[in-house]
Q: What sequence folds into this?
């Protein structure tokens, strides 16, 4: 049998990899891919806790479905922003998108 | 080591290996394809957790919609960023240190929790998709988060169209 700790460590590792992708990449779309990895790690956590702590209730899966919906909405708006920026400023490098900087 | 444990170790190697390729691949299209591999491996993890409906939703929504959107966006913004040269900014080593620290901190903090080594319940009660559907639309259950998520998706849909409108 697989103890719960294995799933939690897997989710923590995937979250850390996603965090590295967000912090270290230049391209704005690559940063969004890192955010997707982090959201998947959160989903693994949620479903693991559902399976191990309360499998008779369905609320764990409902929570995971909410995370699916939120991440889809966030990716849609984020990529629309990136495409709009590409049209106006001809760049997708996150460092060059500095109109609001002091 | 039971066969399920072997399968879990192989799947977690797949998840983490493809995720590392996502964040380190210099070519952005390859990065998006590695992301598809990661999302599929996470669907396999869901199957191991006996959440079969969520595994299918993961494949359909994440791979079938979100990853395709990523590939569209990468293709539409190809010309400005060369695929050669550094794809990471100058502080990438600091990001790596911080990620490792976060992982170590999470692992240590989880290990101090009492239920860390919990074993799974013997079998999942037969919650069908009907139960899930009724939980999502029943007034005693989760109709309100369901409706709020619908409004959120509508707002995201309209917002994305307006933001990306080609004037």
A:
């Amino acid at each position: 049998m697989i103890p719960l700790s294995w799933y939690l460590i897997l989710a923590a590792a995937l979250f850390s990899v996603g965090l590295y992708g967000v912090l270290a990449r230049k391209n704005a779309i690559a940063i969004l891919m890192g955010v997707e990895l982090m959201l998947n790690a959160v989903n693994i956590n949620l479903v693991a806790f559902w399976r191990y702590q309360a499998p008779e209730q369905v609320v764990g899966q409902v929570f995971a479905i909410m995370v699916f919906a939120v991440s889809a909405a966030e990716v849609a708006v984020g990529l629309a922003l990136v495409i709009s920026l590409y049209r106006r400023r001809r760049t997708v490098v996150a460092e060059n998108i500095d109109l609001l900087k002091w | 080591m039971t066969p399920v444990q072997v399968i879990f170790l192989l799947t977690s190697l797949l998840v983490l290996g493809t995720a590392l390729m996502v964040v380190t691949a210099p070519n952005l299209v390859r990065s998006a394809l590695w992301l598809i591999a990661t999302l599929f491996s996470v669907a396999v993890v869901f199957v191991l957790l006996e959440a079969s409906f969520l595994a299918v939703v993961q494949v359909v929504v994440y791979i079938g919609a979100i990853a395709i959107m990523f590939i569209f966006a990468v293709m539409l913004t190809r010309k400005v960023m060369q695929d050669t040269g550094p794809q990471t900014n100058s502080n990438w080593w600091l990001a790596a240190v911080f990620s490792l620290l976060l992982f170590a901190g999470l692992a240590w903090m989880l290990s101090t929790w009492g239920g860390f080594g919990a074993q799974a319940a013997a079998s999942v009660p037969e919650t069908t998709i009907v139960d899930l559907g009724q939980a999502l639309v029943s007034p005693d259950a989760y109709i309100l988060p369901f409706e709020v998520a619908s409004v959120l998706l509508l707002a995201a849909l309209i917002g994305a169209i307006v933001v990306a409108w080609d004037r």
Remarks:
- Residues 4 and 82 of chain A are 38 Å apart (CA to CA).
